[in-house]
Amino acid sequence: MDEKERARVETRVCNVVAASACVERFTVTSATRLIEDAGMADSLDRVELCMDLEDEFNVVLDDREVMNALTVQQCVELVVEKLQAQAEKVRREQRMVEAQVNQPFGGVL
To answer: Are the CB atoms for 63 and 54 separated by under 8 Å?
Structure first.
């Protein structure tokens, strides 16, 4: 993932955190602490954040990882990791399909 795409992910995560925490967007940066700065001390807040991030990025996150995240940056890293894993899975599947398409038919036509 290039830096431009990573920056877009960070912006979107900040937007999600701000909406989930009901705080002004300009107050949320990658350095924002989820509990101290965004007021997300309640475990229900974190579960909702996890679901909101999953919806925003169409990924499946581990609730425990989101619960353990202390900053917005850590949430960004979780999302980036999942997006990269998804992209790699798609690339593997594409290679498998290409390999199947390129296999000879053994003379049967």
So the answer is: no
